[in-house]
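Q: Hi! First time doing this. I have a protein sequence and I read that you can turn it into a structure. Is that right? Here it is:
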Amino acid sequence: MKKTLSLILSLLMLLTVSAFALSSCGDKTEETGKGKLVMATNAEFPPYEFKEGDSFAGIDVEIAGLIADKLGLTLEIQDVEFGSIIGGVQTGKYDMGMAGMTVTDERKENVNFSDTYAIGIQSVIVTEDSEYKSFEDFYTEFDADGNPKEVKEGIKIGVQQDTTGDIYCSDEPAKWGFGEENVIRFKTGADAVQALKTGKVTAVIIDNEPAKSYVEAAGGLKILEGQYTEEEYAICVSKENTDLLNKINTALSELKEAGELDKIIDKYIKSN
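A: Yes, that's right. Below is the predicted 3D structure, encoded as C-alpha cells:
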C-alpha cells in the first residue's frame, strides 16, 4: 500500500513539473514574437515610410503588411535609426529590414536581399536661387573620359547618414563622389533639408520621392534636373534565415503578379 501511494505521489509530482515546463515554454515563445513579422524601418522617408499620428504609413509599410498576411503573421514595426537596421537584422533582433533600402555589394556581405520591389532615383535638392543647374556643376575639372577630378571649393553635400546617398557622395570625385571631407551627415533627411535652408550645405542628395516631399513641405527649394544615380530597393533578411527570405520572395512574386505592388506604388507616387 505504501509503495502504491508513493508511486501515485511521484506521478503527480512529475505531471505538475511537466505542466509547469510546458507553461513556461509557452510564455517564452510568446515573448520571442511567435506569430509576428518584426520589420525594422526608419519612418523619416516619405512616401516609403512615415508617421501619421501614432500610425505608420507608406509604400514599404503597406507592402510589408501584405507580406505578413500571406505568411499568416502579424506585422510589427520598429522605428529605428537607418544605420542600425542591418545590424539588428543580422543579430535576429528584427526579422527583416524595409526602409527604401538599396542593394549594394557592401550590404550584401552582411545580409541577404529579397527580389527588387521598387526602383529608386537619387536626386539633388538646392535652394531656388542656387547658381547650380546640375550636380556636374559641383566639379571644376574633368578627365579625358568625362569623369570629374576635383570638387569646387566650398561645396558641401548634406545626406542622411548610412543611406545610399551617403555611400555614393562620400566616394572619391573620380567615381562621382565628393570626398568624405565635403559630405555632412544628418540623422534624417529632414535635418539635412533644414541645413540646406539655413545655408549650412550647398545641396542635399537623397532619394527622389522623399526629395519631392521635402521640397513641397519646406518651400524655397527645388530639385535639379537629371538624376544623381539609380538603384534597386529590396528587403534585407539575416543570412541565417533563408526560409523567411524564400517566403518573402514568393509573397512578392504573388503580389506583383496580382498587380498589388503597382497599386500601392501608384497610390503614393504619381506617374508624372
